[in-house]
């Protein structure tokens, strides 16, 4: 490709990437192919640098270097090695060429600002177009800011930064973290992606986080499939986990179609051939559902009816401004109960902690309204009033 030969070079460590000698940058070819080369060649930065390189001819650089040598002190041009010959005019870097190069160097502060704004766009679920248009607003809002005036983020640049810059970086950090774990749990689910018209298999990894000292669930990646037969699921599963050791998997969570169970059986057989001790636990199609149901069954045996109390506590103040106002008046607190979830029992830790935190205020509220005409007559109030009389309520909640 003669049109690109003057500036294009191959990147040895990345098969689907290319580099630009003029801009000193690399870009990905996996999506756009040859069009990515044309797009880069027509970019504002590339064209500006090329134009300035042509205008800054050799005669100008030599003239500038001679002037620099004439004005420099003798010590400035003494070579480091005494065995080397005297310096020539081409050995001295001309100040003009330095200034030209500096004018095109991007400040680290500007790059950091652009990265932070791209991260903000992802966290706040902003569209790439909206994130890019906000950058133009920054220049008007902060006219005295050098960083704001130099930020260059268009819709496509935001997309490339997120997809090919930030995403691989965070995935690499996650993979390095997961590799340190002795055992992992993998969860996946398939759903139709209407944009690509393919089945999207999202993969989640659950592992022990050594830094946080707790079990952590993190999104790993997504794989797009045409068919969703067991062999297709196996191929997509291996593609998603190609950076991880499959022997560390102790359980796989998924929904319940028979094709998924066939995939699980095939995976067990394959792992049994490669290792002497396959350790994939058979907890059904979804380990979370099994765990939650086991917790529910165990706590039902206690007959403490804590769930009844937690539900009544939330419903007592739900969408009732008068009761909320009375509660604030008598307790000087605006901290209210949280909603109990009957499906994910293991996720109700915060609900119970809030119930323990506001127990004294709830008791104070019940005592205050018992002797008034505004005493609530709802079932939720009668339930709460009955439970707060139990001296063992706090120990029961703590055990829960």
The number of domains is 4
Mean pLDDT: 82
What's the number of helices? 17
Main sheet: which strands, in order across?
A: 6-5-4-7
Strand coverage percent: 5-15%
Derived structural class: alpha+beta
Order of helices and strands: EEEHHHHHHHHEEEHEHHHHHHHH
User: What distance separates the N and C termini?
Assistant: 70 Å
Q: Using DSSP, what is the number of strands?
A: 7
Shape label:
flat
**pLDDT below 50 for ≥5 consecutive residues: which ranges?**
57-95
**Main sheet summary:** 4 strands, mixed
Tell me roughly what share of residues is in helical segments.
40-55%
Radius of gyration: 33 Å
Protein name: BED-type domain-containing protein
Describe the structure.
This protein has 400 residues and is an alpha+beta fold. The protein folds into four domains: 8-53, no CATH class; 105-168, no CATH class; 183-273, Nucleotidyltransferase, domain 5 (2-Layer Sandwich); 292-399, no CATH class. It has helices at 34-41, 44-55, 58-71, 95-104, 108-123, 128-141, 146-150, 155-179, 230-240, 258-274, 287-302, 306-317, 321-331, 349-357, 359-370, 379-387, 393-399, and strands spanning 8-10, 17-20, 25-28, 184-193, 198-209, 214-225, 249-253. The longest helix has 25 residues, at 155-179. This is BED-type domain-containing protein. It comes from Araneus ventricosus (Orbweaver spider).
């Amino acid at each position: 490709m003669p049109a690109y030969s003057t500036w294009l070079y191959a990147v040895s460590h990345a098969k689907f990437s290319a580099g630009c000698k003029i801009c000193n940058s690399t870009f990905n070819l996996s999506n756009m192919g040859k069009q990515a080369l044309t797009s880069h060649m027509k970019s504002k930065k590339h064209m500006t640098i090329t134009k300035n390189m042509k205008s800054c001819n050799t005669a100008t650089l030599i003239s500038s270097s001679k002037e620099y040598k004439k004005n420099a002190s003798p010590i400035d041009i003494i070579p480091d090695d005494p065995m080397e010959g005297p310096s020539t005019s081409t050995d001295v870097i001309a100040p003009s060429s330095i200034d030209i190069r500096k004018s095109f160097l991007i400040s680290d502060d500007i790059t950091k600002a652009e990265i932070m704004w791209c991260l903000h766009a992802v966290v706040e679920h902003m569209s790439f177009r909206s994130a890019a248009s906000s950058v133009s607003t920054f220049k008007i809002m902060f006219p005295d800011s050098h960083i704001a005036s130099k930020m260059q983020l268009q819709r496509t640049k935001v997309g490339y930064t997120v997809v090919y810059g930030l995403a691989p970086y965070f995935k690499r950090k996650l993979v390095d973290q997961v590799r340190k774990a002795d055992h992992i749990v993998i969860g996946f689910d398939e759903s139709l992606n209407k944009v690509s018209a393919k089945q999207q298999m999202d993969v989640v990894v659950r592992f022990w986080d050594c830094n946080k000292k707790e079990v952590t669930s993190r999104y790993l990646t997504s794989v797009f499939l045409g068919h969703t037969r067991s062999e297709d699921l196996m191929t997509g599963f291996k593609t998603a986990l190609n950076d991880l050791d499959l022997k560390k998997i102790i359980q796989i969570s998924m929904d319940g179609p028979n094709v998924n169970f066939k995939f699980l059986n095939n995976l067990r057989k394959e792992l049994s051939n490669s290792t002497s001790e396959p350790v994939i636990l058979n907890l059904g199609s979804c380990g979370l559902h099994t765990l939650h149901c086991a917790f529910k069954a165990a706590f039902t045996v206690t007959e403490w009816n804590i769930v009844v109390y937690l539900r009544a506590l939330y419903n007592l103040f739900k969408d009732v401004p008068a009761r909320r106002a009375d509660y604030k008046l008598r307790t000087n607190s605006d901290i209210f109960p949280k909603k109990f979830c009957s499906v994910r029992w293991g996720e109700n830790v915060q609900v119970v902690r809030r119930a323990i935190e506001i127990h004294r205020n709830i008791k104070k509220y019940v005592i205050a309204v018992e002797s008034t005409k505004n005493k609530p007559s709802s079932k939720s109030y009668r339930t709460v009033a009955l439970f707060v009389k139990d001296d063992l309520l706090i120990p029961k909640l703590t055990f829960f």
